[in-house]
Amino acid sequence: MDDKCLRCGSSNFQPGAIQSTGSIYFVPDNTKLLSALSSDVSLKSRICMDCGTLDFTGDTKKVAALVGTDKAA
Known about the structure:
- Strands 1, 2, 3 and 4 form a 4-stranded antiparallel sheet that branches.
- By secondary structure, the chain is α+β, with helices and mostly antiparallel strands.
- The protein has one domain.
- It has 1 helix and 4 strands.
- The protein is elongated.
- The protein is 11% helix and 26% strand.
């Protein structure tokens, strides 16, 4: 993740997880139907301790494999 908060520019972050009654995942549109991979992409999150902004990061390589591209970050 970037070193600065997108909202206030702070670098004061606390990592954590967003929770519900189960795990929260990113599921890309246009997933190949016969993919052997689970279409759930887990997320990492953190909160800016100065302004409260939450940000998320997902596995771009897994998303690229799921949608059939090689354009992962």
